Amino acid sequence: MRNMLDLTWKLFMLTGNIGPYLLLKEIEDKEEEQNQQNSEMIELKEHTGA
User: Could you tell me which residues come within 8 angstroms of residue 7 by beta carbon, excluding any fewer than 6 positions away?
Assistant: First the structure.
């Protein structure tokens, strides 16, 4: 996933086009959301003893 972020950032920097930047932010947001869900699942498993 990091390569995709790097690629979209480089494309934005080279072209100045806002599209790759918006894609970058969308990917980052989804990644952050996934990390939050994973953390919640780990907490839930710890509390239930699973």
Answer: none
The 10 Å Cβ neighbour count of residue 24 is 18
What SS3 class is residue 44?
A: helix
- For CA atoms 7, 16, 31, 36, the dihedral sign is positive
Reported as a single tens digit per residue, the pLDDT across 1-50 is 789 999 999 999 999 999 999 999 999 999 999 999 999 999 988 888 76
How big is the CA angle at 14 (ends 8 and 23), to the nearest 5 degrees? 25
